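Hi there,

I know you've been waiting on this one. I reran it after we fixed the sequence typo, so this is the corrected version. Both the input and the resulting structure follow.
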Amino acid sequence: MIPTQFKALTASLLLALATGVSAADFTIVDGQTVTTTQTLNANETGIIEQGGQLNTTGVRGIDSTADNVTVSNSGKNQKGRYRLK
């Protein structure tokens, strides 16, 4: 018999996975390397601090077609792959 709490947790995790990834502000700090595309919606900001790296393979590093986005890059955006409106 599976405990009720476990069933609720499993249902919550499945729902979270099914809803997909949403965009949000992001900051990549000194010493951090991010290897996934960072997406920005309207009025959001992406920051790559000095010593931080955005290093994706075969995909864009930053993706946005929204209005009023800001990207501040003091670190490295490997290959310079991005799409901004």
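Quick highlight: The helical segments are 4-18.

Best,
R. S.
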